[in-house]
Structure formats: C-alpha cells, structure tokens
Amino acid sequence: MLAGKVAAITGAASGIGEAVARLFVKEGARVVLGDIQHDKLRRLADELGSDRAMAQECDVSQEADLKQLADAAVSTYGSLGVWCSNAGCYHREGVTPLDGLIENLDTADFDRQVAVNLRGVALGTKHAARAMKRGGRGGCIINTTSVAGLVVNCANSGDPVLVSAAYSASKHGIVALTKLGACELAPYRIRVNAVAPGYTATPMLAKTIGLQHLSKEELEAELAKVSIMPGVALRAEDIANGMLYLASDMGRCVNGHTLVIDNGLVAGVAGYVPGLETDTA
C-alpha cells in the first residue's frame, strides 16, 4: 500500500510511533525515524533494516531538529511523501494530574507540553510541507491528537488525562492546525489529517495512569477489562492501521479530517475509562 513512498515519523522509538514505523515498512515504505530515545530508535532502525529505515535523533520542541528530519528523508531517499507528527508528552516528573487543573497550573509544565504537543506539530507541518512542495508530487501529513483534543471532563471525574489543561489544550490545538494545514496546502496536493486515539496500551499511557510496571500484554488486559467494548483494548497497532489508511491511496480524498480511533469513547459515552484510577495506588 505504500510501495515507493518515503515517510518521516516523530516519536518513533516506542508506542504508536513504533507501530506506525513497523507497519509502514511492512507495506513497502522507507522510513526516517525521529525520537529523543536514541538507543531505542537505533535498535528499531537496525531491526527494520538499513535499506528500509534510518534513525535521526529529533527533539520536536526544537525547530532545527524537525528541519533536519525532513531534510534527511530527502537527502537519503530522494523525497518525502508522508510525515507523521506523532511525538507527544504528558506531565513531567513530579507534576501530578491535579497540577494540570487551571487553578493549579504549573507554568513550566504547561509550556513544555505546548512546545512538544502543539508547536512541534506546527513546525513539523511547516518543514514537511516545504519539502513536499519542492518535490512537486504532493504528500500526506498526519498529526496525532487525542480524544483529549475533542472532549474534556470535569475536575472530579477521576480521569487523569481529560482534566489536564495543558494536555487537552495542546491536543485541541492540533485539530485546528490540521484543518488550517489542509486548507492551505490542498492546492499543492498535500493532504493534512489527524488521528485521535483513545486510551491506547502504550508506555506513555502506562506511565500516566501508574501502571508502568506492567508488561504490554498485562496493560492490554487491564484496559480490556474497563473498555466500553468489553474485552477489546486499543493497541498501538490499531492506531497505526488508521494512519496507514490516511497515508495510502485509499485515503487520497480525505483532507482536514480527524479520524477518531477510540472504541466509541467520545460518541456520547463516559469521557474517561472507569476503574483505572483504582489500580494506580
């Protein structure tokens, strides 16, 4: 489905980004992998094969790193056809979800999340679009937002994500950037879309809800217990499948859209995963 395409992926060393990298290579793409987790990134690139993948250390809060990632795709593989802004962050060490409430805002933490989650997407789009326009063959930009970019929840909900002002505001901003990018870049046949994952079994979620001691399989089992679709936990691979659709010719007329992959979480049902808060003690 992606034969002949070149993709750059931020946040590629683990979680959703890793799943996207593996799937894209399986489907014929060559990939440039960006992340700050250098050792994990290098191991993944080696596993995928030097002829199909290369690692490029990339801190998305630094514009120069994003430009270098886009440039690396062109200089190494000759073009850039797909850009996945997937890197993201939640609260830094020592900052609790309660510190994310508006009345308790930790300004350094707020600035960090906006720099990574929102500004990183904006500047990634900037440099990906420039590379794609120079290539003259169009392209596809995919941004990872979140269900927290679509809905919020009240402070007494017990939810550790949807009450975070920094995280939710930054993820809402991605939805707006996606629409703006789609309108601006459509004349150049560059599509801009987003995916909004629900609670997905990734290292980032595990850390957020205090279950980082669990294996991937154990985390999936815990999420399956409280899923609104009984027994069905969202996996990183499920999100990667959505990105594959958007990146491939199957999604060639999809532009400015946010694809929600959440088991139905935001479709008028409870805005958080009940029960998880009881497992974080």
Automatic annotation (TrEMBL):
Keyword Calcium found: no
Top-rank lineage group of the source organism: Eukaryota
Alphabetical list of Pfam families matching this protein: adh_short_C2
Annotated InterPro entries: NAD(P)-bd_dom_sf, SDR_fam
Presence of the UniProt keyword Transferase in the record: no
SUPFAM superfamilies reported in the protein's UniProt record: NAD(P)-binding Rossmann-fold domains
GO biological process: lipid metabolic process
Keywords: Lipid metabolism, NAD, Oxidoreductase
One Gene Ontology molecular-function label: oxidoreductase activity
Family according to the record: Belongs to the short-chain dehydrogenases/reductases (SDR) family.
Name of this protein: Uncharacterized protein
Gene source species: Chlorella vulgaris
